[in-house]
Specification:
heterodimer; A: mainly beta; six-stranded mixed beta sheet; four-stranded antiparallel beta sheet; B: mainly beta; seven-stranded mixed beta sheet; 11 strands; 0% helix; globular
Chain lengths: 115, 114
């Protein structure tokens, strides 16, 4: 069975600085999707960024980028120029291409942003 | 506006009193799921449905029931709630096929069972 591990329960960053959130996963599959979701205090789950495993190029969405290391089964999220609105819980998630509905989530990393 | 709605948003109930949390989506999505979120555990899938009248268990189905009689609705039923079902619940939906892999989440339902 696939698992997702987020080893940093909490992280903090100063406004305008860069922070990296870690995520590792375990799977025997070769094709899958990886996601980062943001959950602000409103509790809404917001998709931040996604990566297809067959793509070598790291995904980027504005200030958010990932470092996808397929061999190492690592999928970290880098937030550049951090803003106060980035403060939230961040979840890493895995989805198989075979069971195309279930997302397997990590336990989350709470990010604090200080002015 | 494309959205997934859940009702109620907050619910406090007592052990054993049957309850239903409704979920509705207006995007004509085939896939729908229920997740529960608990501190230190992330989100875990309870049940999912691939289309009308097609449902299956996720990772933590004990104590829950679902039905999918219409494409847009996917209610979660707790026939005899217990305190260990106190949690934050999310409904999600997604279109099937192609590269449409984004799941759309509802706003969440905070359930407390005393």
């Amino acid at each position: 069975a696939q698992t997702v591990t987020q080893s940093q329960p909490e992280m903090s960053v100063q406004e305008a600085e860069t922070v990296t959130l870690s995520c590792t996963y375990d799977t025997s599959e070769s094709d899958y999707y990886l996601f980062w979701y943001k959950q602000p205090p409103s509790r809404q789950m917001i998709l931040v960024i996604r990566q297809e495993a067959y793509k070598q190029q790291n995904a980027t969405e504005n200030r958010f980028s990932v470092n996808f290391q397929k061999a190492a089964k690592s999928f970290s999220l880098k937030i550049s120029d951090s803003q106060l609105g980035d403060a939230a819980m961040y979840f890493c998630a895995y989805r198989s291409t075979y069971n195309t509905d279930k997302l397997i989530f990590g336990t989350g990393t709470r990010l604090q942003v200080f002015p | 506006e494309a959205q997934v709605t859940q009702n109620p948003r907050y619910l406090i109930t007592v052990t054993g009193k049957k309850l239903t949390v409704t979920c509705s989506q207006n995007m004509n999505h085939e896939y729908m799921s229920w997740y529960r979120q608990d501190p230190g555990l992330g989100l875990r899938q309870i049940y999912y449905s691939m289309n009308v009248e097609v449902t299956d268990k996720g990772d933590v189905p004990e104590g829950y029931k679902v039905s999918r009689k219409e494409k847009r609705n996917f209610p979660l039923i707790l026939e005899s709630p217990s305190p260990n079902q106190t949690s934050l619940y999310f409904c999600a939906s997604r279109i099937s096929g192609g590269n449409s892999y984004e799941q759309y989440f509802g706003p969440g339902t905070r359930l407390t069972v005393t």
